[in-house]
Amino acid sequence: MSESSTTSDPLRGGDASVTPAVVREQLLRDYPAKTKKKREKQIVINDKQRDEDGSLQLPVVAANTRTVPGIITQRGCCYAGCKGVILGPTRDIVNIVHGPIGCSFYSWLTRRNQTHTPTDEHDNFMTYCFSTDMIEENIIFGGEKRLRQAIQEAYDLFHPKAIAVFSTCPVGLIGDDVHQVSAEMKKQLGINVFAFSCEGYKGVSQSAGHHIANNQIFKHVIGEDDTTRSQWSINLLGEYNIGGDAFVIEDLLERCGIELVSTFSGNSTYDQFANAHMARLNAVMCHRSINYVADMIEKKYGTPWIKVNFIGANATAKSLRKIAEYFDDRRLTENVERVIGEEFPAVVQAQRKYRPRCSGKRAVLFVGGSRAHHYQELFRELGMETIAAGYEFAHRDDYEGRRVLPSIKIDADSRNIEELRVDADQEKFRESDRQKGIAREKQGYTLREYDGMMAEMKDQTLIIDDISHSEAERLIRMVRPDVFCAGIKEKYSVQKMGVPCKQLHSYDYGGPYAGFAGAINFYEEIDRMVNARIWSRVQPPWENGSPAAESKSPLPASMAESEENTN
Amino acid sequence: MTTRTANPVSGPFVATRNACKLCTPLGACLAFAGVEGARTILHGSQGCATYIRRYMISHFKEPVDIASSNFSESATIFGGRDNLQDGLANVTRQYQPAVIGIATTCLAETIGEDVGMYLHEIRSQASPDGPALPPVVHVGTPSYCGTHAEGYLATVHALVSQLAEDGSQRDHINVFPNMFSPADLRYLKEIGADFGLPVTLLPDYSDTLDGPTWEEYQLIPQGGTPLAAVRRTGQARSSIEFTWVHGEKASAGQWLEEHFGVRNHRLPVPIGLRASDALFDVLGSICDRETPARHAAERGRLIDSLIDGHKYLFERRAVVFGEEDLVAGIVGLLGELGVHPVLCASGGDTGRLRSAIARLVPDQADRIQVRQATDFADLEELAGDLKPDILIGNSKGYWLSRRLKAPLVRIGFPIHDRVGGARLLHVGYRGAQQLADRIVNTLLESLQEQSDEGYSYL
Ligand code: SF4
Ligand code: SF4
Predict the structure, then answer these.
(1) Facing residues of B392 across strands?
(2) In a domain, B456, yes or no
(3) Do B280 and B360 belong to one domain?
(4) Over its length of 458 residues, how does chain B's per-residue pLDDT go in tens digits?
(5) Which of A184, A252, B86, B308 has the most other CB atoms within 10 Å of its CB?
(6) How far is CA A403 from the centre of its chain?
(7) Same-domain status, B228 and B300
(8) How remote is the C-alpha of B354 from its chain's centroid?
């Protein structure tokens, strides 16, 4: 049985000919057979079915598979996920990129993660881009000596708490042992030095780099400092403080009386990581990039984890309540309700203003490994519909929910990423936290659960994993969305076609969008985008007297025609 | 955001700290973007293509599409031939490009991929019913040798040496620009037209990387040097190229002279009065014409603005950084403005920046510090003592500018903290005049800001 009865909702407002099946067929049209066969499994109609016992059945999305050569992808590399995403936002670790210059240059302050040092005397190396800048000689004879020297230089210059080393592609091939060099230097310098084998060719996207980063931080940093934390203490995992999001969340938590031990990794420091195992609960924002740490901490130290989302006003309220509910204390619950009560009137007022202006408009989101899901909340609050969405580097569980984890097949690309074997720590494991989790679950509280993107999206919407550049352009021409959410790489080609593009990686210099204040910020910005007059000056390709605009005939034929015209 | 200053440790450093150069394939992607109907594939892992796209897009604020052959871990062991073959097939099917450019990344170079041989094999095994592969130009661009500037020139060289055809001489001239802005390229074409000279500009990304909104759907942005014109570079009556720091190996003009007897004129980048004069003189001598009146007038206005600016700029201290050729060009202009370039720096390492500067401003050369293979951390250490009044270079100098409290005039690539980087003019009389005004005004603005009186009248 199909979940909703309005399955024929056309993707393009009012045009019944543009059905999900037609769009899908068009996106796949020009691929060679081999490529088509692969993309078919990644371009999926969200056909939501209920089986007899009422549980939701979703189609499979072949996510986290290698991008076909020659397809212009949004994805970056393993190194980008490791150094750029996870370790980039930590301010007091000196990051040394071992490799030729480009990889390090391109990840130098490009992600707009913010940080606040308590004073000017505190370390902040985020504006600093340290590379071994390998030369030909190192490629031939090896670069270990150069790396050792670079570590020494970083130490002499800054005496930092820690130095992290990141391998790029050539390093893996010439066989430099970055871990050995780091271990030696750690001994010699007396500070923590650790390395990441995050060569860009590993895995299929940034995702492999997240995993590698999680592993090494877990191995080398978490658990170093056993300072006790309060009964309502949490770690916020998978929040990277783009545009100041983490500052907003930090403020909310503080006002609720929830102690934030560490954030992975927006506005974070080495010491926070070292102490993270002492928090009593882990709250996971971006499931894709950080669930490994949540999982490993739970196994080794007993801390349970929950999924939260601070994007969207309702989601924020829900997440705060969920944390309070876990700790199950009247005072905390009252705090949380008070804070929500303080924040919500402004949200409602903003919604009253912007909803009528935005409602009914249609968004598509192709970004990241959680944002394409989380931001749908905000659009929903504006009365906007998400008609198509997909991730850049997520896995099946981020689409279909964690319940599919046991059925995910491990392919050659994933097999190469180390899975750490983690056992309970004899001394530091907190049985009481484990027991608390078990008790809460008995009362119906859900731990370790993430339902994924598709369960929350409407029936018959389009799911496109790892959308390619040419697919994105075709999709726009066919469904003509009111706003396209992606990143800088997509921005200008989307806008050339007269559709506003909201960058959800870097926020176009905007933000914050998290929490209540962030939601209001986002409403304003989306209103400005979808209602800006400038777009009426751009004549979109489909209105240029093209057959598509003139006739009501279904798109396929006309599309083929106008495409030929441009060649 | 604060950054703690480093302990006083003296170099030289092995590590590069805050690089003042980008990587080689980026230059290749820029050059290929200036060929009509071209698509670029970077042979290696996908990350490089994504990073380079992102960087170029943030400067040009235009779509930039670069494919990759997406090496997997096994491709690093068994080679990337199959990946390249699939990549070529997919690019051809999706975009029907007129040309495909392939540049290698460090990974492919490290494992010693022989792209030329692969292409030969792929072509000879192509199935007759599949879509035909367009011409493919390939260039080796390991980043551990050279910078984006070398990548750019090597790619122009590859385009010419792999596509140019011999034949009887025609009327046109070849112009091989350096890493100029789209606005510079448009202006060069305008100058050629005013001389009545048919010009083949290679590459020409003046439209592809600075285009209007689309009225029609475009698989590949319109514009660029047509393939036929690239082939005809072998039949030009002469070539002009702008570099004084890069050697013959990188020279497309030299190659054409050696192989097809096309006379090559090697000029400095035409920034400033004298360097622009050199360009106009060569153009005039090629077609035996005076400088067209319009440009003679612009020359006059440039001299006028140099005089106007001179009194504010005389003996002001400037730090200049960026690609070596660009830095040398700017130093020429600064000499004409009376500015003292106290420090000229580049991440590039051709070893010829000093001699290029000495040729351009012989009387000043011994009081200019020149640094090659340098980075922004070095620059900061050096520049602090030099007390510069103004910095001239790309956006990466912003932190330096902030710490030294000296204003930054943004030129070159990348400019990703301002809009309009693609529309900045640097070359020719007009470019020099606009640059001179910007330099003066930036300085005046900062003096005004710092003044106690808050004067508002000069
Ligand atoms: S590996 Fe080489 S080509 Fe790729 S980004 Fe790094 S420096 Fe550039
Ligand atoms: S060389 Fe490897 S690590 Fe560097 S950007 Fe390219 S794919 Fe990423």
Answers:
(1) B320, B409
(2) no
(3) no
(4) 445 567 777 778 999 999 999 999 999 999 999 999 999 999 999 999 999 999 999 999 999 999 999 999 999 999 999 999 999 999 999 999 999 999 999 999 999 999 999 999 999 987 777 778 999 999 999 999 999 999 999 999 999 999 999 999 999 999 999 999 999 999 999 999 999 999 999 999 999 999 988 777 778 899 999 999 999 999 999 999 999 999 887 899 999 999 999 999 999 999 999 999 999 999 999 999 999 999 999 999 999 999 999 999 999 999 999 999 999 999 999 999 999 999 999 999 999 999 999 999 999 999 999 999 999 999 999 998 999 999 999 999 999 999 999 999 999 999 999 999 999 999 999 999 999 999 999 999 999 988 888 787 77
(5) A252
(6) 20
(7) no
(8) 19
Q: Which domain range does residue A92 map to? A: 78-220
Domain assignment present for residue B216? The answer is no
Backbone torsions φ then ψ of B126, nearest 5 degrees: -60, 140
State if residue B106 touches ligand 1 by the CB under 6 angstroms criterion: yes
- Spatial separation of the C-alpha atoms in residues A403 and A58, rounded to whole Å: 11
Q: How many CB atoms lie within 10 A of CB B296?
A: 12
Q: Are B426 and B324 within one domain?
A: yes
Amino acid letter, residue A351: Q
pTM of the predicted protein model: 0.94
Cα–Cα distance, B220 to B98 (Å, whole number): 10
- Which residue from B106, B145, B148 has its CB within 8 A of the most atoms of ligand 1, so it is best to mutate? B106
| Cα–Cα distance, B335 to B357 (Å, whole number) | 10
Are B44 and A169 in contact (CB < 8 Å)?
yes
Q: Is the domain of B153 the same as that of B181?
A: no
Whole-angstrom CA distances from A430 to A179, A267, A420, B426 are 31, 27, 20, 66
Classify strands B369-371 and B340-345 as parallel, antiparallel or unpaired.
Answer: parallel
B366 with B446, same domain: the answer is: yes
Same domain for B195 and B126: no
Could you tell me if residue B387 is inside a domain? yes
User: What is the value of ipTM here, to two decimals?
Assistant: 0.95
CATH number, position B328: 3.40.50.1980
Closest CA to A201 of A399, A412, A392: A412
* Cα gap A430→A300, rounded to integer Å: 9
Residue A157 domain-assigned (yes or no): yes
User: Is B1 inside any structural domain?
Assistant: no
Q: Is A77 considered catalytic here? A: yes
Question: Taking the CA of residue B182 as centre, how many other CA atoms within 13 Å lie in the half-sphere pointing to its CB?
Answer: 22
Q: Which of B22, B29, B48, B54 to mutate to test the pocket of ligand 2 (most atoms within 8 A of CB)?
A: B48
Say whether both B132 and B200 belong to one domain.
Answer: no
* CA atoms A77, A78, A79, A85: torsion sign: positive
Q: What residues make up the domain containing B80? A: 24-162
Cβ within 8 Å, pair A75-B46 = yes
Q: CB under 8 Å to B108, separation ≥6 — which residues?
A: B43, B44, B69, B71, B80, B115
Residue A116 forms part of a structural domain: yes
Q: Identify the domain boundary among A158, A192, A220.
A: A220
Q: Is B105 in the pocket of ligand 1 (CB under 6 A)?
A: yes
Whether A80 is catalytic: yes
**8 A C-beta contact, residue B87 and residue B68:** yes
- The number of domains in chain A is 2
Number of domains in chain B: 3
With H, G, I as helix, E, B as strand and everything else as coil, classify residue B403: helix
User: Cβ-count burial of A357 within 10 angstroms (0-12 exposed, 13-18 middle, 19+ buried)?
Assistant: middle
CA A270 vs CA A193, B179, B366: distances in Å? 12, 41, 48
- Quick check: is A369 in a domain? no
Q: Is A103 in the pocket of ligand 2 (CB under 6 A)?
A: yes
Q: Which of B1, B52, B111 is facing A173, going by the closest CB pair?
A: B111
Residue pair A261/A236 in contact by the 8 Å Cβ criterion: no
Task: With both helix axes pointing from N to C terminus, report the angle between A330-358 and A515-530 in degrees, rounded to the nearest 10.
Answer: 10
